[in-house]
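Risk register update: the risk of archive-format incompatibility is retired. Evidence:
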Amino acid sequence: MGRAAEERDRGAPEHSRGGHAASLARRVPDLGALQLLLGVARLGSLGRAARELGISQPAASGRVRAMEAQLGVALVDRSPRGSRLTDAGALVTDWARRIVDAAEAFDAGAQALRDRRDSRLRVAASMTTAEYLLPGWLMALRDLHPETAVSLIAGNSQTVAARLLAGEADLGFVEGLAAPAGLDAAVVAHDRLVVVTGPGHPWARRRAPVTPAELAATRLVLREEGSGTRQVLDAALAEHGGPAPALMEFSSTTAVKSAAVGGAGPAVLSELAVGEELAAGRLVAVTVAEVRLSRDLRAVWPAGHRPAGPARDLLGLTRGGAGGRRRG
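Archived output:
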């Protein structure tokens, strides 16, 4: 900007510069006051207008006085026979009607946006949460939002993060050691990984715990790289050289579990996923010494964009314990 333009801007009155928008709120009455004035014009009584808006007559009188002081003109003449608008009041009422009509149109448009948002919910979840926790949460959500169409995308934690950052999901759930970059998170559950084998494997009959070095040296049936399960295992065995190359690698928890039940070899899975097989004896839990295999399950969403509508309510249900164990 040139010097002459700067001087013109400095010399301009406040209402013609950037302060104009900020000062409008001080110079223009609020919607409640304008609705009160319209009520007086329509009903011919300040008391009836106050009752229509659900406020006391003294409060209504105070609003009118404040509006008159704000505008610098008298708006209403009061008498024992009722209230009538002054000439200035009649003119202000015409302007007020346009503002209130515009506000009602604004409100209707905002409601339409909320209705469109609430008509669908796109959830992206890593496999353990998708298979063992989300069904209960989504059933509870249906009671709150029966008209909301819910779609679920299941994948590993990297896939969930990518969907959220691309705007292809409204809320996600991941299983790793920390929230992926670019996402805000809340812990919704705690989980523990367990080493399991089929009953015919030597580890199933072993009394002494498997050592970290043995676990790291053994080729296991594993989830794919990028999954939360794999991240936790890799971190737990990092000081022991990391896990050996996978015996088998699957992108599905169910496939890993089936391979272990079939006797392919030891597997590392969430305890949420193997409870039924352990109880039935189709799998055996193996004790491993001095290896931390616990993790947090997190709800995630794009940083700075707190979930709203059905996504917010689903997040609330996860914290209330619907469909899963109580979380800390």
